Amino acid sequence: MLSILTLNVQATSRRRADALLSWLSGRPEQIFLLTETSSGDGTAHLLDCFRRAGCQVHHPPLPGDRGTAMISRVPITVRPDITAGLSIPGRAVAATVHTDPLVTVLGVYVPSSDRAKAKVERKRAFVASLVTVIGDLTASERAHLVLGGDYNVIPRDHQPTYPGVWLPFEYDLFDALTAAGLTDVHDHLAPGVQQHSWFGRAGNGYRFDYLHVGTALRDRLRSGSYLQEPREQRLTDHAAVTLDLDLQVDALDVRPTSPVVEPATLF
Q1: Contact of 186 with 174, CB cutoff 8 Å
Q2: DSSP class of residue 112?
Q3: Phi and psi dihedrals of 146, rounded to 5?
Q4: How far, in Å, are 16, 254, 255 from residue 265 at the CA level?
Q5: Predicted structure pTM score
Q6: Does residue 91 sit in helix, strand or coil?
Q7: CA dihedral in degrees (65, 70, 71, 75; nearest 10)?
Q8: Residues in a beta bridge with 76
Q9: What is the CA radius of gyration of the chain?
């Protein structure tokens, strides 16, 4: 079984990093896609602890901006050739997982925006480049793709609808993913059930965080869920999203054995 979790870590401070580390180390998933990472001490500490515990960690440098990291407890081959086509390559990570069959995992942190022109165009460019990158994959790799992260958009059927808040290109991202053969894991496993992964100051809920799978993986989905614990425990301001795929993993790497934060006892 291959299990994946994505979580926005809200550019974790050094103080919150220890609590996040403890929570993540107790999770059973083999791959973590962490979004809104930063170049600060908190992200560095979190990732360094996983490295020292024997995990593969990939975190493209993106000075002065927020990015994405991948932590893997199973063997992976990093794929910078995929993320190089994005308008902001540091906002994504990609790797081939040594499963049978091989699976490609692409984690993204789509830029947020208000209605300032520069921010809208930055987001529009990233979304357009993401659609192009997915379209440029071979048919087989796209069919065996897991896409996940913080998309910073909501679909048209989202509840509440928030009319007038979103631009057409933001809704269009979901149409493009569907056209590429990607399935929203939550919608597939729990159709009609609205989830929220982030809440505004007024208590308004939004589903910003997602996992999608290609056509060859859809029938291998065994479970998936939104985990509110990280948000409720104030480890970050987002919920986590998970999936389990019925796939043979070539070789298991480290596994959690203790919630203790010390690196030597994480796994």
Answers
A1: no
A2: P
A3: -115, 120
A4: 19, 11, 11
A5: 0.93
A6: helix
A7: -150
A8: 97
A9: 17
